[in-house]
């Protein structure tokens, strides 16, 4: 059984999966930092610091006027937290856009790294070189035969 387990772990796809999960976790930290530390503050400046997280309707129960969403939930009231949902959707869209831009940049770098290097085109022969090649071909008597040239 230990041998089978060792063979299972040693398979390439299991190792690839483990590496993918680790890189995915690290990438998640980068994307979360990008959104939380760079994009959201800029959006906060543009929107005047509007935060919808604490917007809700009380469906049943008593909640003090102006209480935060956390306080409303702690009071046991049934709340319709549309603001938290709106912020979750907005954060998802921001994160999806950031991931799209990062993947697009990585793909561009990969294409540049794997693109075949174009060699500079050889210089075209000069007129004198072409004429010399034609002269040499005409001088080569092996291409001539005794047949007359067709008349036009």
Give an overview in words.
This protein has 152 residues and is mainly α. Helices cover 64% and strands 5% of the residues. The protein has helices spanning 2-10, 12-47, 69-74, 82-114, 127-139, and strands spanning 57-60, 78-80. It has a two-stranded antiparallel sheet. Helix 2 (12-47) crosses helix 4 (82-114). The mean pLDDT is 82.
What keyword list fits this structure?
mainly alpha; two-stranded antiparallel ribbon; 5 helices; 2 strands
Number of helices: 5
Number of domains: 2
Q: Count the strands?
A: 2
CA radius of gyration: 36 Å
Strand arrangement, major sheet = 1-2
Topology of this structure?
Blueprint: H1 2-10, H2 12-47, E1 57-60, H3 69-74, E2 78-80, H4 82-114, H5 127-139
Antiparallel strand pairs: 1-2
Helix pairs in contact: 2-4
Summarize, please.
The chain is mainly alpha-helical.
């Amino acid at each position: 059984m230990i041998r089978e387990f060792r063979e299972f772990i040693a398979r390439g796809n299991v190792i690839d999966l483990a590496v993918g999960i680790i890189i995915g976790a690290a990438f998640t930290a980068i994307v979360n930092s990008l959104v939380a530390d760079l994009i959201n503050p800029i959006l906060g400046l543009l929107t005047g610091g509007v935060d919808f997280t604490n917007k809700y309707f009380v469906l049943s129960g008593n909640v003090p006027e102006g209480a935060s969403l956390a306080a409303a939930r702690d009071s046991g009231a049934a709340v319709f937290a549309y603001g938290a949902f709106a912020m979750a959707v907005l954060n998802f869209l921001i994160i999806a856009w950031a991931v799209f831009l990062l993947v697009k940049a990585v793909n561009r770098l990969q294409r540049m790294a794997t693109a075949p290097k174009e060699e500079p085109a050889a210089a075209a022969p000069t007129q004198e070189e072409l004429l010399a090649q034609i002269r040499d071909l005409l001088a080569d008597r092996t291409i001539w035969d005794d047949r007359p040239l067709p008349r036009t």
